[in-house]
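Running this now, will post back.
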Amino acid sequence: MPVAGVYDIENKRVAEIELSEAVFGAPVNEDVIYEVVRMQMAARRSGTACTKGRSDVSGGGKKPWRQKGTGRARAGHSRSPIWKGGGVVFGPTPHGYDLKVSKKVRRLALISALSMKFREERMTILRDFPMEEIKTQKFQQVIDRFGFKKTLFVIDMPRPVLEKSSRNIPDVKMVRSEGINVYDLLKYDHVVLLEPSVHNIEGALIS
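Update: finished.
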């Protein structure tokens, strides 16, 4: 069973915690990680690109000239795609890009990403992060003390003071344990978990 150190905000090791082998010590499956990240990126696409076809362009109700006898090519509509000001042929229309990935695959990908972070020693567990008032400077001091750069903080419950203290710091993101996802785990170099959030994650993924 994996064992990790638990630290306080002074970067002192204060305890140890046994982690679930099924969540933090599982084999890394890169295929399912790819599928889930692809799904998350596709879901972010707005799909609002739109062009007008010949029936959507205003005007053009009258036949430009008679069918025969003018010496010119036949024309039935002045909003034809081959005319200037006409509609667009096979242009984009609004649609969704959502991809479907099963719940089992999403769970396996999240476990793989957590196990990869732990194996690469890019995961830190904090006993707590006490802050009585909103202070970005104090939050930054803790980050500098640990030497964190691009960091994802995972908290166990709403912590308004902590969340507001971190929101103006570049390359730092704070999510609650129920919102942890594969894309963020891969995007950020280091993951910091508050100790209670570890139990929340294990409970959600093992049950």
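Strands lie at 3-7, 13-18, 123-126, 151-155, 172-176, 190-194. More later if anyone needs it.
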